[in-house]
């Protein structure tokens, strides 16, 4: 296969699904990692041969290792990894089992991306593009944590630190960067009052939409002199 190949984690919903569709439309082959092969992603795979849906449980080491082995068996190169899989929940929701919750956050936000970066390094260095790319989707809270999401914020900060280490380790053949999203797209459980509160604290008081993140991702892919950078896409919320 000579066309570029992208691997997207958390590809079954929200940004992951949006970027899967976008890259397919741009002529990429996409390996979509998801916990279960259901919904829009599964339907898309039935009609687009350039989409390879792979089920992977980021909380299970054996599943992650099997996924890495499977990808290395199927492909001889990889051009882009988007580390998008995430758990975004308040600490208080898991008060009765904080230890397990913290373990899950660490596995999804830090261990899973690290294992993929290490395990697929040989494919990245064989990219058909001038350089391969790895993008870690972190959060503006990585630099200025929200106390209600203390555990989430700490592991997103860890993911951002890993970005710097891998940028050093994989240069010059692989560029590694991070994107810090702000209020891109509210979750269904966000009340209208919560939404208005967030937007009132944002310099550009609207939802950015997944297209805003898409443009940031594409700008990184197109800029061959960019690595170890952190790009905020937050409508100015981080400074308010």
Automatic annotation (TrEMBL):
Family: Belongs to the short-chain dehydrogenases/reductases (SDR) family. FolM subfamily.
Enzyme class, UniProt record, top EC level: oxidoreductase
Known function: Catalyzes the reduction of dihydromonapterin to tetrahydromonapterin. Also has lower activity with dihydrofolate.
Record's keyword annotation contains Oxidoreductase: yes
Its EC number(s): 1.5.1.3, 1.5.1.50
A Gene Ontology BP annotation from the UniProt entry: one-carbon metabolic process
Keywords recorded for this protein, A-Z: NADP, One-carbon metabolism, Oxidoreductase
Highest taxon of source: Bacteria
A GO MF label: dihydrofolate reductase activity
Entry annotated with the keyword NADP: yes
InterPro entries reported in the protein's UniProt record: NAD(P)-bd_dom_sf, Sc_DH/Rdtase_CS, SDR_fam
Catalytic activities: (6S)-5,6,7,8-tetrahydrofolate + NADP(+) = 7,8-dihydrofolate + NADPH + H(+); 7,8-dihydromonapterin + NADPH + H(+) = 5,6,7,8-tetrahydromonapterin + NADP(+)
Protein's name according to its UniProt entry: Dihydromonapterin reductase
Pfam family, one: adh_short
């Amino acid at each position: 296969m000579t066309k570029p190949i992208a691997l997207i984690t958390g590809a079954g919903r929200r940004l992951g699904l949006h970027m899967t569709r976008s890259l397919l439309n741009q002529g990429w082959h996409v390996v979509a990692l998801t916990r279960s092969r259901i919904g829009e992603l599964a339907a898309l795979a039935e009609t687009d041969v350039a989409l390879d849906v792979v089920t992977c449980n980021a909380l299970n080491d054996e599943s992650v290792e099997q996924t890495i082995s499977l990808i290395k068996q199927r492909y001889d190169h990889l051009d882009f990894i988007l580390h998008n899989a995430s758990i975004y929940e308040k600490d208080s929701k898991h008060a009765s089992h904080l230890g397990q919750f913290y373990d899950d956050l660490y596995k999804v936000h830090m261990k899973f991306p690290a294992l993929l970066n290490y395990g697929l390094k040989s494919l990245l260095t064989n990219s058909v593009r001038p350089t391969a790319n790895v993008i870690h989707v972190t959060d503006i809270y990585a630099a200025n944590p929200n106390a209600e999401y203390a555990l989430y914020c700490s592991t997103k900060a860890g993911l951002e630190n890993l970005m710097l280490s891998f940028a050093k380790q994989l240069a010059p053949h692989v560029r590694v960067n991070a994107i810090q999203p702000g209020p891109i797209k509210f979750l269904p459980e966000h009340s209208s009052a919560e939404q208005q509160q967030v937007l009132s604290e944002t310099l550009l008081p609207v939802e950015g939409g997944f297209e805003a993140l898409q443009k940031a991702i594409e700008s990184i892919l197109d800029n061959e002199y960019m690595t170890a950078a952190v790009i905020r896409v937050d409508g100015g919320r981080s400074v308010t």
